[in-house]
Write a structure and sequence with these properties.
six-stranded antiparallel sheet; six-stranded mixed sheet; 18 helices; about 15% strand; alpha+beta
Length: about 575
């Protein structure tokens, strides 16, 4: 939900800060006061197009910042994680637009591309009014609304898993076909290289091991002489270090018997003698194992020479050679059994297509089952909102494909029902669009092309009312929801907004007292002029101010006791 908004130097706004409630938030104000400016500013932090014209005259830049509570929104968490942006329970979206036309976007104080800001906005807010953010004007969103209405997430997930699997198989098949000529051309080369590498038979880590052994063998005489001399000096020779340490230890023991202050140094001397003893054991053992083996020395030199030639030809290290050998072995095996591999993939594709087709067919059948129910529900809601004689039609279309087989006889068609192949995408074989007619005798036409702004808002309100529990967008913003509405219909619109606010946070701009009187939080937009400049402010009203504002909407600028009493009654306040 939207917790707060901060707007600075935007259009005729100098500075506005407002905190919103979780239920129904109403914004009212005189015509021309700037009510829609707040919706436009909100659109800016949801990724809408930025123009330098929004910067308040005399300012360097406009700033809009919104704080959203998103703790339970897994989609937001995943989206931010994918874009390496820290997730916080309270997410801050900020947009800065300079007079030079430069725009900067931030999410939780981290710079972000505007397309990421828009993706975040699409998961948070649906704006309804004269805005590009209107989801109903994007026909591709209609299938999502239908699926939400039917709770088809499980079927859709199943279908998408089969679609992805089949897509991977198609990609493998295409890649294999593209390789065919290359593999056949290089088969002899790969066979020669495999024989050449296998004739030497390099092993992982072999070169390091041989180099170490070579170094030892080349220096065997020096190692033998050095270890012999060290052994003599430390243990067996006259005045050997070990003997001297033993004598010193004995003398210190005598001193320790006189003065206990020598106890610690006595132990140190004993430890030194023990260390020398271990060193001499190692030297003796090492010396006894030293080999003088000219034949082995020559073998190692010859082997390292073979490995060096391979490295020059196939790569800078044995690991590179072995990786190359593994790669060409796969390619050679594939070239040897190309037809067999194609048949294997073809079989997997047919099996995958069968699974995908079954999932798509079940998903499509469920959607078609929903059509009449949603049509009737929307028409019934529209009647409450003053759109009489409406016809609403959810049209579900399937599009067949023409010839689909490629030169190898494999069809990259995901769904086949009977003998027909169908166009598909990640949502199945259905193309869904809403059609509407609001006049008797008129055939329904695409909603996005024929509905007025007010009608679109009321259609969306009708849809949101029947989809309330299933819809995932936490914030709904309605601008011009009450165009052409009054009296009893206004009460119906107000009640629908109120009911909708049980499942979503709702922000609605209105001029109708029947709607304003139901608010959980009421904001008044006011325009002030000081003789030089105009500025718009947004005030959150207390209870008495709300009563006065509703009374003003009912009877005009002059507020009477009767008007106040009527406002209290409309708001459900006790007398």
């Amino acid at each position: 939900m939207l917790k707060s908004i901060h707007i600075k130097n935007y259009a005729i706004i100098d500075l506005v800060e407002a905190e919103f409630e979780s239920g129904l938030n109403i914004i009212t104000g005189e015509t021309g006061a700037g009510k829609s400016i707040f919706v436009e500013a909100l659109g800016l932090i949801l990724g809408e197009r930025a123009s330098p014209e929004v910067v308040r005259k005399g300012s360097e830049k406009a700033i809009v910042e919104g704080a959203f509570h998103v703790m339970a929104n897994r989609k937001i968490r995943r989206l931010l994680g994918n874009n390496e942006i820290e997730f916080k329970e309270e997410m801050i979206l900020r947009r800065e637009v300079s007079v030079k036309g430069q725009s900067r976007c931030f999410i939780n104080d981290s710079p972000a591309p505007v397309h990421v800001l828009k993706e975040v906005g699409d998961l948070l807010v649906d704006l309804h009014g004269q805005h590009e953010h209107q989801s109903l004007l994007r026909s591709e969103s209609h299938i999502e609304l239908l699926d939400d209405f039917g709770g088809l997430d499980g079927l859709l997930t199943e279908y998408r898993a089969s679609y992805r699997r089949l897509n991977d198989l198609f990609n493998q098949s295409e890649e294999l076909h593209q390789k065919e000529a290359q593999l056949r051309e290089k088969r002899d080369l790969y066979e020669f290289q495999l024989r050449e590498i296998d004739a030497v038979g390099p092993q992982p880590g072999e070169e390091e091991s041989l180099s170490s052994e070579l170094k030892i063998l080349e220096n065997s005489e020096r190692l033998f002489e050095a270890t012999s001399k060290l052994y003599q000096s430390l243990y067996e020779g006259e005045q050997a270090v070990y003997d001297q340490l033993v004598l010193a230890r004995n003398q210190i023991e005598d001193l320790a018997a006189i003065d206990r202050g020598f106890e610690e140094i006595k132990e140190e001397c004993a430890s030194a003698a023990a260390i020398i003893s271990e060193v001499t054991k190692f030297l003796q053992s090492y010396n006894s194992r030293i080999e003088f083996n000219p034949e082995r020395l020559e073998q190692i030199r010859e082997r390292l020479g073979q490995l060096s030639l391979l490295k020059k030809k196939y790569g800078g290290s044995l690991e590179t050679i072995l990786a190359h050998r593994e790669k060409i072995a796969r390619e050679f095996s594939l070239a040897q059994n190309f037809e067999g591999e194609l048949e294997r993939l073809k079989g997997e594709i047919e099996a995958g297509r069968s699974v995908c087709s079954d999932a798509a067919q079940r998903l499509s059948a469920k959607r078609r089952d929903l059509v009449q129910k949603i049509n009737k529900s929307v028409v019934a809601e529209l009647a409450k909102f003053g759109v009489a004689n409406a016809t609403f039609d959810v049209r579900v279309e399937n599009r067949t494909l023409g010839k689909t087989s490629d030169r190898n006889g494999t069809s990259r068609a995901y769904v086949k029902l009977g003998r027909e192949f169908f166009e598909t995408n990640t949502r199945g074989i259905d193309f869904v669009e809403f059609y509407i007619s609001t006049n008797v005798g008129e055939d329904p036409k695409p909603l996005a092309k024929v509905a007025s702004g007010g009608e679109v808002s009321r259609v969306m309100l009708a849809l949101k009312t029947i989809l309330a529990k299933s819809d995932r967008l936490p914030l709904l913003v309605f601008d011009e929801i009450d165009v052409g509405v009054s009296g009893r219909i206004a009460q119906a619109v107000g009640k629908s907004l109120r009911n909708l606010s049980r499942f979503h946070q709702v922000v609605a701009i209105t001029h109708l007292p029947q709607i304003a009187g139901l608010a959980d939080a009421h904001f008044a937009v006011e325009k002030h002029e000081d003789g030089k400049r105009a500025k718009t402010v947004l005030r959150k009203l207390d209870l008495e101010e709300r009563v006065e504002e509703v009374a003003k909407l009912m009877s005009g600028a002059e507020i009477t006791e009767a008007g106040l009493a009527g406002a209290r009654e409309l708001m459900g306040m006790k007398k």
